[in-house]
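INPUT
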Amino acid sequence: MSETIDLRAEFENSGVKAVLDELDTEMIGLAPVKARIRETAALLLVDRARKQLGLSTETPTLHMSFTGNPGTGKTTVAMKMAGLLHRLGYVRKGHLVSVTRDDLVGQYIGHTAPKTKEVLKKAMGGVLFIDEAYYLHKPDNERDYGQEAIEILLQVMENNRDDLVVILAGYADRMETFFQSNPGFRSRIAHHIEFSDYTSEEMGRIADSMLGAQNYKFTPAAKAAMDEYIAARKALPHFANARSIRNALDRARLRAANRLFTTAGKVTAEALSTIEDVDIRASRVFQGGLAHERKAAK
Amino acid sequence: MRITQGCFSFLPDLTDEQISVQLEYCLSKNWAVGIEYTDDAHPRNTFWEMWGNPMFDLKDPKGVMMELADCRKLHGDSYIRFNAFDSTRGFETVTMSFIVNRPKVEPKIRMIRQEVDGRSQRYSFETVR
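OUTPUT
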């Protein structure tokens, strides 16, 4: 009988399982994203097995677009994606080059192409992550050099499919208009992955794990305050999911440091790593945000 | 006449695959790679034209190979060499240099003798096509 390949063993030995497990434990929520990544990994594994058995395969198009609101973990997932593709052998080096419009588009005629090429050369063998990709296209200015960068990108995405994977990221609605005005991009991108907002409960867990990573912890009262804070912050404008949480925690640490500095003389390690509820309740979010936001609410 | 300068020049010409492997080695050592070309391979001509700037922060040889392809398109009938620069001493030093492209017909190097100051001989070399 013909040769067989144990997909399960392949899955564990290639290190793909490790990356997926890491994704599961480190990233909270994001169930649809994880499911899509799992599917992609399965496809790539099967493709690889087919290749080993001598069945004809074409290099699959792996360019992706990540759409979602700010702070939903697009960059972090892109970084994991680079590791995953590297273990599966679809990119040779597995590094992530993260760029925005500034890194690709030049300031005067003839400046854009070398700049874009420079970035592409650096990204070869890895993953090129273009954050807020829609800024490349400025419909109101037809002489904008962004178009030139787009053309070079498209060319390389087509011709060097074995050498690099391009991930475009941005907010859903603006990415949609970007794809509509650049149909070439839509057809070259096989995987559109949507990042949904976190629920309040998930954000509470994110806050816990962020603090844990910095060797801090909440008192139970502070935890309750944090949950209230998240609910209040969500209602205010410019809410950026996990990023807002991180900023809030940074400010809470600031207040905790100040509280310790003004009250206590001698401190224990315990006190140095505890966030009390007053540290969180002092936030302006509980008074309805910044001054101009309060005015706007009225 | 086959010009022998830099590494590997006594071996048959490297294929693109072999060049990639050599580049892989350079990049693994964190050396920056620069591309240079010239139509005059006289041994005293040490300054060749630069094809763009040396490439720093590359991870994969493909980036250099892309530039080589561009350079060959324009200067296919010239000498092209890669220089690898090492910066561990605080400034960029060439640690490895090899020719990756040669013209179809390589120029000859001719020795010229000149008699000066009585019967003294002066020797110089020139490239001839």
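end of record. The radius of gyration of chain B is 17 Å.
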